[in-house]
Amino acid sequence: MDIRQYVHIKKLAGGNKKEIRIVQGAVNSCSVIRKDMPERVSNPRILLVQGSISYHRTEERYLSIDGLAKREDEYINQICGLIKSFKPDVILVENTVQGQARDIFADAKVALVLRVKPSVLERIKRVCNTDLINFITPSTINNHALGKCREFY
């Protein structure tokens, strides 16, 4: 068995040789998107999202802007409510999250990390023994879809 694909050396700027340590798990240099979100969480429940958390518009016909905005708000509230019902502490997203959803997660004290590389999501998926969600519905998010780890910071 070749373990080189499971071992990564991560170098951080600064420090000295006495600060070298071995970390079991996945290490990446992503950070939360807002200062009012928690930056350090012990024993977090982690949700990995492939793609974006946003309303996808269709251009089938002409719509009034008011109706479209109302539909977007309802959809984002519904999706965020569904995600919050499973009580994740950390959400890692491959692409972006709509502004309204960012506010909802910040109010719920959920750490949100955006633009996570697919290779990093796969590594975290393997280490945390979780699923990678690409379409958010009640059937795709369940307690088995949430990963766990010792520390997030």
- As a percent range, the share of strand residues is 5-15%
Radius of gyration computed on alpha carbons: 18 Å
Q: Helix segment count?
A: 3
The first-to-last residue Cα distance is 31 Å
N-to-C order of helices and strands: EEHEHEHEEE
**What is the SS-derived class?**
alpha/beta
Features:
single chain; 153 residues; alpha/beta; 5-stranded mixed sheet; two-stranded antiparallel sheet; 7 strands; 27% helix; 13% strand; elongated
Description:
The chain is an alpha/beta fold. It has 3 helices and 7 strands. The strands form 2 sheets. Strands 2, 3, 4, 5 and 6 form a 5-stranded mixed β-sheet that branches. Strands 1-7 form a two-stranded antiparallel sheet. Helix 2 links the parallel strand 3 and strand 4. The mean pLDDT is 80.
Outline of the structure:
The protein is 27% helix and 13% strand.
Secondary structure elements and pairings:
Elements: E1 41-42, E2 45-49, H1 65-85, E3 90-93, H2 99-107, E4 111-113, H3 118-128, E5 132-133, E6 147-148, E7 151-152
Helix pairs in contact: 1-2
